[in-house]
């Protein structure tokens, strides 16, 4: 157990139970529930149509057996987990969804979505493969306009410009508040464990009431600040001071195995360059221009490995290393994720040579089979950072 841990699994469980109840109420009152799988999906559009977006990426291995009846066993665990829950009907959120809005990202996900479409109606947004060129933004804007029409048709609610602008403002506030949790770690001594950050912000993908989510996160930020001023502050801060500061990057950290190992072995994950973390929290949507154009421009700034080239990711990692005074970078690669695995060569090169930081690549799945081996490697990495 980490010393002075305040935001643990029990905290998250309580929040998730509240969110679940609110989602059930919404669904029962006729609000459409829309399942999504990616940071590129415009949650603002869904909310502007009076529907609720719920993130269905999954982090448990319980559903693998069901998934492997249709999918190859050596597929990314994230894809198997999501699909397995759908096919076995073991995810209450998936069960509640009226339809799915997904994005054509990596090969495994795209092909899995074809099968998912047999279980629930699924609209696939044809995400461009190149970010932020004028042509790709025009193309993505057109895809978002098609999605807006579909949402209007399925919900029976028109998406007005003022409604959409209101949602963009709200989700921008959620991003800013999420980033503020990470920013607690930009000082010389970090103030919050990565495990706590994950517990504080992790439910953002499900929340039906964003104002409520923002208020909860703000409350948590204050609690973290209070801990650093409390009677026990010296013991807490001395402990934090000794921990090497780690940036966790790579695949979405849907399963928490590696995050927990780093901190249980004496490090502190001060920042996460993942799509639930700083990859998307730092990407605001322009509130001053036509809103669908703004969504197209803004969402394509997310530096995901699905894009080619993806140079913005290296820039983001460099900025985080500076801003969070990072001692070492750990890159998490899920087994069979070629997208992030191939890109990891360039990431390691930039981290070592351009940013002069140590780098460790962890390739794993959701099982506990390799925990002993991972412990040895992470422990050696943290010891090296402490020299
Ligand atoms: S890593 Fe990329 S493709 Fe995967 S969920 Fe995040 S943004 Fe989407
Ligand atoms: S982790 Fe990799 S393989 Fe898995 S869904 Fe994301 S991009 Fe695709």
Provide the fold topology.
Blueprint: H1 9-28, E1 33-36, H2 43-48, E2 52-55, H3 64-68, H4 77-88, H5 92-96, E3 99-103, H6 107-116, E4 122-125, H7 134-155, H8 161-183, H9 194-201, H10 210-227, H11 233-242, E5 245-250, H12 257-264, E6 268-273, H13 278-281, H14 291-299, H15 311-323, E7 328-334, H16 338-354, E8 359-364, H17 371-386
Parallel strand pairs: 1-2, 1-3, 3-4, 5-6, 5-7, 7-8
Helix pairs in contact: 4-6, 7-14, 8-10, 12-17, 15-16
In summary, what is this structure?
The chain is α/β, with parallel strands linked by helices and 387 residues long. The protein is built from 17 helices and 8 strands.
Explain this structure.
The protein has 387 residues and is of the alpha/beta class. It has a single domain (1-387), classed as Rossmann fold, CATH 3.40.50.11900. Helix content is 53%, strand content 11%. The chain has helices at 9-28, 43-48, 64-68, 77-88, 92-96, 107-116, 134-155, 161-183, 194-201, 210-227, 233-242, 257-264, 278-281, 291-299, 311-323, 338-354, 371-386; strands at residues 33-36, 52-55, 99-103, 122-125, 245-250, 268-273, 328-334, 359-364. It has a 4-stranded parallel sheet with strand order 2-1-3-4, sandwiched between helices. The chain has a 4-stranded parallel sheet with strand order 6-5-7-8, sandwiched between helices. α16 links the parallel β7 (328-334) and β8. α12 (257-264) packs across α17. The longest helix is centred in the middle third of the chain and has 23 residues, at 161-183. Bound molecules: iron/sulfur cluster (2 copies). Residues 38-40, 105, 252, 275, 302, 304, 306 line the site of one iron/sulfur cluster (SF4).
